[in-house]
Amino acid sequence: MIIDTHTHLYEEAFDADRTEMIERAINAGVTKMIIPNVDSNSIVGMLSLVKQFPENVFPMMGLHPCYVKPETYKSELEIIRTNLFSPSGIGGYYPYVALGEIGIDLHWDKTTFEIQKEAFEMQCDWAMEKDMPVAIHSRESTAELIQILKARGKNPSGVFHCFTGTEEEAKEILDLGFYLGIGGVVTYKNTHLRNALKNVSIQKIVLETDSPYLPPVPYRGKRNESAYTKIVAETLCTVYQKSLDEIAAITTQNARDLFRI
């Protein structure tokens, strides 16, 4: 069994064949998929999939940093909080497995850094209050997030989703008690990620796709999907010199430990 710890199954890229795509993943051995929320508009679609596949699909709840906008972020955060703490939240109460995805994105808009930081820390506090892990988005902001977490001192458990940083950053993240989410980038020809992971413990790695984004080789340029988590696992076999069964077993247990599923 393999767990895809980060997949946007509600995205419109899957509108034509969403059910078949999820069934393909299950048939490929990816029997559990964890969905991050991004803002108030993704909640209903996410929860409908949880209802359709209650044994296979597990929801997170959070406000993605790209949706932290000056004019709306406070009201968006209130909706997130309502869904976390109130059984009358949008779609009714569901047992969220993490706060996510949250974090900081400095690729698209650096001008909102301060309110992104505010939203991130607020959601980290909620995660600690709820005793839940966090799924952290860190596009072009890994160093900044490491410093924020160090300055906080007390943090929830969690994962740096879609980690593509250096070995040094990986070790700092592990020292903070976090896992690394590894996806399709590890399969790319010119990535440094395979070398960066060689001295990083497999006991702190979880698998993901971030589908429909970041498809692995040989699907680059096409739509990613959860069934391809197996390709990520196969690539890690070469990094850690372990069999596919070993990689699947270790990363699955890591995901179970982190998300309690």
Keywords:
TIM Barrel; 8 strands; 3-stranded parallel sheet; 5-stranded parallel sheet; 261 residues; alpha/beta
Give a concise summary.
The chain is an alpha/beta fold and 261 residues long.
Question: What this model shows, in words?
Answer:
This protein has one domain (2-259): Alpha-Beta Barrel (TIM Barrel), CATH 3.20.20.140. It is built from 9 helices and 8 strands. The chain has helices at 18-27, 43-52, 73-85, 113-130, 142-152, 167-175, 193-197, 229-240, 244-259; strands at residues 2-4, 30-35, 57-59, 99-103, 134-137, 158-160, 179-182, 205-207. The chain has a 5-stranded parallel beta sheet with strand order 4-5-6-7-8. A 3-stranded parallel beta sheet has the order 1-2-3. Strand 5, helix 5 and strand 6 (158-160) form a beta-alpha-beta unit.
* Sheet/helix structural class: alpha/beta
**Beta-strand fraction estimate:** 5-15%
Sequence of strands across the biggest β-sheet: 4-5-6-7-8
How many distinct domains?
1
Rg over C-alpha atoms, rounded to the nearest angstrom: 17 Å
The poorly predicted ranges are none
Q: What's the helix count?
A: 9
Provide the succession of SSEs. EHEHEHEHEHEHEHEHH
Report the average pLDDT across residues.
96
CATH topology label: TIM Barrel
Largest sheet: 5 strands, parallel
Q: What is the overall shape?
A: globular
Total strands: the figure is 8
Helix content: 25-40%
Q: Give the name of the CATH superfamily.
A: Metal-dependent hydrolases
